[in-house]
Amino acid sequence: MKANVHITLKKGVLDPQGKAIENALKTLGFDQVKNVRQGKFIEIELDEKDPKKAEKQVAKMSEKLLANTVIEDYQIDIQENK
What we know:
Mth169, Chain: A, alpha+beta, 28% strand
C-alpha cells in the first residue's frame, strides 16, 4: 500500500515562503495569481493490506513526526497496490 501525505500550514498561519513564491510568480507576469500557500508532500510505502489500518498508522506517523499539528494540517490519501 502507498500513502500520500500532504502537509500544509493551517489557515491564519503566516506563510513567508508562499508569499515569496506568489511575488516571484507575479514578477514573471502571472498577474492572475491571488495567493500561494506552500507545503510538504510525503510518500510512504507500507506493508499493510487493510486500507483503514494503513490510514490509522499514517495518521499516527503524522501526529508524532511528519506534521507539527500546532501550525500544520495534514491530509492522507491511501492507494492500494494493483
